[in-house]
Amino acid sequence: TRQWRGVIEEYRDRLPVSASTPVVTLREGGTPLVPAQVLSERTGCEVHLKVEGANPTGSFKDRGMTMAISRAKEEGARAVICASTGNTSASAAAYAVRAGMVCAVLVPSGKIALGKMGQALVHGARILQVDGNFDDCLTLARDLADKYPVALVNSVNPVRIEGQKTAAFEIVDMLGDAPDIHVLPVGNAGNITAYWRGYQEYAKDGLAARRPRMWGYQAAGSAPIVNGAPVTSPQTIATAIRIGNPASWDFALAARDESGGHIDSVTDRQILSAYRLLASQEGVFVEPSSAASVAGLLKAAELGLVDRGQRIVCTVTGNGLKDPDWAVAGAPKPVVVPVDAGAAAAQLGLDG
Ligand code: F0G
Fold first, then answer.
1. Is the interface score ipTM higher than 0.95?
2. Which cofactor does it need (predicted)?
3. What is the mean pLDDT of residues 7-14?
């Protein structure tokens, strides 16, 4: 029996590594592509979920981080830094441990989910809460990487994008071709850039007959690409994509236009409704930001933009356990019962 080796070993010939690159891996990638029955019925399409919360640190960031940390180690870096809304920092912290490096993370003060903060802390990262938003954190991280001996592992580091494109490879490898439409949440816009790169690469090399239309969704209060202008004070409950000035903005526009796709926004209400649908009807627990893809698909279906019979993949980017507040909020508090079958059965409605 052979286990999945991680994205670098599985796709070595398609990634910027050499025989002498030290591979730092937690065996990321190889994530489930799960048929979504309820979403398929609702849209009249064949909908699949690429469940990226199944990665080692619970988000798609691990695909890029194995590349960024391996290359940083090869180049002799002893410390890495990133700005993050939480998942990048969790991933960087874990991979830095594997590489024996120091990890510094800059997060927007009070605006990252507790699970993600816990990950960075337990992996021993040096965390600074910045009095500003994600965009301010990224500016500061770039400045520090310019002036001090510390390697930047945000997705402005091109090898991150290279690692993340492997998700598109996996989908084509599973389905035998690219889907008709690929839907994903957009924050800093690295991931939509990466998927488009992956799909294009496979099509160019004859491994896929077609390329999907790329559909990206921002949160309505943080939708600079949709608005066509940076948002100075982005707002949304989907903290992972609370970003007002995406670093990969131009690449996202290219992915949209070259693929004949679109980038639109979904409200927090639509995000939370998709979040609950995924958990209660598909059995897939994601963090709120991840549900933006599914919220977008449902919005597009309501607008009549989804022709029946298409094959659609929605990436759900992060694990629901990272941000459980939204699962508990508004839900009835579980009843306390004595150790008594009759009482428990009565509460459960099993007694007729
Ligand atoms: N979904 C989740 C769960 C994320 O953590 C992110 C980005 C996105 C979607 C958006 O992806 O930025 O490539 O468009 N999180 C970054 C972070 C910003 O710091 O963890 P993107």
1. yes
2. pyridoxal 5'-phosphate
3. 98
